[in-house]
Amino acid sequence: MAVEFFRENPKIAFALLVCEENLIPYYTRLGWQKFGGELIVRQHGEPGVFTFNCVMTLGIASEAPLVGTIDLRGPPW
Question: What is the layout of strands, in order, in the sheet containing 46-49?
Fold first, then answer.
């Protein structure tokens, strides 16, 4: 349902999710692709590379990035 909602909003370029390694085949069947770059998150105001789970992307209004850097920039969003 989230992807359907995203597709109704032309301002959303792509979707991002994090999941455990064993769920990658499931999400791949739904069209998601493993992101091979770095996801930057902030904890306690400090930026760092997210390494806890796998990162996947899905194109919505444009192609989703598969490499590079995605910086979530932290709050306030």
Answer: 46-49, 38-43, 69-71
